[in-house]
């Protein structure tokens, strides 16, 4: 069995694909060596050694010692040096390397192999005693810290004492003899702390460091990190042992880090920093101000230190070549570490570089245009959720912020405004031109106008699928939900977090990407829908097969969705049209009507409003299909609660207040979500269905007369569970259509279909397809009813379910493919079995969730419908699902 893999001198036993075995660092060192880049030779102890070690009571595999000495001998041959030699010593670094980089793992030990003898040899060879003993001092400190576990503070104190004694301020002002003395002091300290001598023997040092790396795999920090990030224990870590190269041997030496492209904006610029005469850690530690790589960067940052391009022009050119070689080879932006020793360049690390959403987009488009990757590879590289970040303003990264609380990042984007505590106040202030943040314990449908008027929403209760979160995402408003530390006091119009009190009218900023709540107005930067955004969207459209529609009922939302490239409206929630302004009164009047005549008078008012709204939507969609769902309010969302609200209804209807009160209490249901709602309302009050059908068809007739493209009306019946419901309502709809056609003297196109949102509907899909011309899966309700779980109440225990591993993700966020998905599959099959090629789509929140979109593609749906701001995300996710 091979436990050790060599690399260096233009070849390697391993490859980049072997990350599982060699860890990320080791696999890429092997890859760089094998494509001929100048990598100091070394070897990797595999992750299997780690696994073996822990499975066998902390014992190494029997062959390991022998394989390591062979590998070490090879490094000695390749460098022409000998480990522990008294004249020409080999020094190495010991670097841990898990598959994914992991905080908590052991730090790197540099300069290993130094002792009193080899340090003298290094001094003689380099002709620089200061360098040799500074390296020695650093080694003893690093080894004692990371391998022996001695507090760094001990060494810092000794260093300070040495400087004071010499009367100097800077480390590098110490004389060689001071450093030599310091090494002695450090070792004495180790003896004092451990009761054991610091290991002098290089092999003992090596095995000590190797053991420390494997040991750190099981330390508490690493364990916690793995748990949080679902990294299995069996993965293990690898250990890399590599010949040292020195960036700190004089002014022809340097060390640096770089990105092959700009990681913040994606520009094709070499971007990095370096330090002359320094060792690797110094760049990150920020001991001195690092210098720029290129003249261009130096000028743009106004730095007065010369760039690498100026200081070492030929090395810079060599590094430029390496940069292109790496990009061509890995076909992605790389993050590299390099060191220059006496005018020679060495590569010490490469990995895929982390980048902002903006840079990710730019780099994917550029690399495809350069022919480095294909269009489909470019598409696959972008996480759909990145797109979300690009569509909203974000906090200016340079801005100062005072974070006072943290909640759930419920809807992306950042917003600042004056705090208000009621929807009405939000509307009043925003009409006065003020920007406001609506702060509520939680929101309800009564607050919709306030959510619209506000720049953003903050709630103290509720989760990612709470009312505020869902509505805010739909409207593209930033939302921080469930910020429990924030205590709202409506009576005094203020909220408290710890000892901070924020009153109505005071400025706050919320960040829906991080969930942070900040005092004052933190500056934001607008979204940049640059050319590359359009390019990526166009490429996504080339590859995807499913259509993308939007859920929208207001003209603003519909226009926004169209701008984002939707191909129709998949869901118009007609009841949402009645939350606004005075409309709710007419709606309530209709619901609370005592008889048909009263109901009709309210319906007449609603007809006009509804027709106007739908006309507008048809116009905006310009010939694209618009699916209008008939009324589906759980009644409790509309019943007036306060005396004042009831008073308004009584006045509008011209009936005594007492009667309104009585009707309201009669209509109370024990379980409204399973009560008198959806098509059940239309069955008991067919005149509601008739009114809505009339509104839709009159709108279609009107728009059809004037517009070039005739509107496509899809009338959708909600909450159906039996064929007979559909039969009866379809008749009302068709009769109304005929009548409107006759009255208006025009024909228009329309289809009647149904929501599939109850398990019975899914099972009876074959029968429903006799009547329904299309299905739309209402996965919010279908999830609720399949699980028997109320979305509004799930927040109190779902987190615990997640923590205990009962559910992996919130089924209201990402479709439960096994259960709910099974019902969808059955419905698709049975529906299309009856009506070949029947059009089917999804219109729940899941329509904008990438994993659910992939499921829809596999299941053969024709379209997904999601909130306007998720349309671009869905376009990309649909393309990825099709690829
Ligand atoms: P990290 O993952 O924390 O970056 P590394 O193993 O990459 O840890 O090493 C830390 C620093 O030491 C880096 O700057 C790296 O370039 C440098 N380094 C590691 N091995 C060597 C070596 N053999 N010669 C010179 N510098 C090295
Ligand atoms: Mg590194
Ligand atoms: Mg529903």
TrEMBL record:
Substrate binds at residues 573, 629, 757, 778-781. It catalyses: pyruvate + phosphate + ATP = phosphoenolpyruvate + AMP + diphosphate + H(+). Residues 530-881 form the PEP-utilising enzyme C-terminal domain. Its cofactor is Mg(2+). Mg(2+) binds at residues 757, 781. The active site is at 467 (tele-phosphohistidine intermediate), 843 (proton donor). Its EC number is 2.7.9.1. Residues 20-56, 62-299, 316-369 form the Pyruvate phosphate dikinase AMP/ATP-binding domain. Keywords: ATP-binding, Kinase, Magnesium, Metal-binding, Nucleotide-binding, Transferase. The keyword Kinase applies. One of its GO terms (molecular function) is ATP binding. Residues 434-515 form the PEP-utilising enzyme mobile domain. InterPro entries: ATP_grasp_subdomain_1 (IPR013815), PEP-util_enz_mobile_dom (IPR008279), PEP_util_AS (IPR018274), PEP_util_C (IPR000121), PEP_util_CS (IPR023151), Phosphohistidine_dom_sf (IPR036637), PPDK_AMP/ATP-bd (IPR002192), Pyruvate_phosphate_dikinase (IPR010121). Belongs to the PEP-utilizing enzyme family. This is Pyruvate, phosphate dikinase. It comes from Symbiodinium natans. The gene is ppdK.
